[in-house]
Write a structure and sequence with these properties.
The protein contains one helix and nine strands, in the order H-E-E-E-E-E-E-E-E-E. It is mainly beta. The protein is globular, with a radius of gyration of 14 Å.
Length: about 130
């Protein structure tokens, strides 16, 4: 099911249902990578609760990995957010984010992301 949903959103330009994805209410620190190719896209440092049911960020972690495209679908004028490396549709960017942080809201589908938690690369177990 996850594979089909990922295909529908990332390759066919769909949108997951609000409040249904793994990351809309995630508070762990780390880096959000593209589920299609692994490119670093967003950081938990810029993630905020927009109340929309999708993960929202004030800016990309690495602007070189994010592409903005005009989107005139569904009779709306929007700006699509895509992965520059693999071309995957990620979501949209809107001008209703926190004013004190630039005013942008990168509204991203959870299914397009994989969270690399801070410290997750350390599997030594301690001691």
């Amino acid at each position: 099911m996850m594979k089909q949903e990922r295909q529908r959103v990332m390759r066919d330009g769909g949108t997951e249902a609000p409040f249904s994805g793994d990351y809309w209410n995630e508070h762990a620190k780390g880096r959000y990578r593209c589920a299609g190719c692994g490119a670093e896209l967003f950081s938990s440092d810029t993630k905020f609760n927009s109340g929309t049911g999708w993960p929202s960020f004030t800016q990309p972690a690495n602007r070189e990995n994010v592409e903005l495209r005009p989107d005139e679908s569904h009779g709306m004028h929007r700006t699509e957010v895509a992965c520059r490396r693999c071309g995957a549709h990620l979501g949209h960017v809107f001008d209703d984010g926190p004013a004190d942080q630039g005013g942008k809201r990168y509204c991203i589908n959870s299914v397009c992301l994989e969270l690399e938690r801070d410290g997750s690369g350390d599997d030594s177990g301690g001691a």
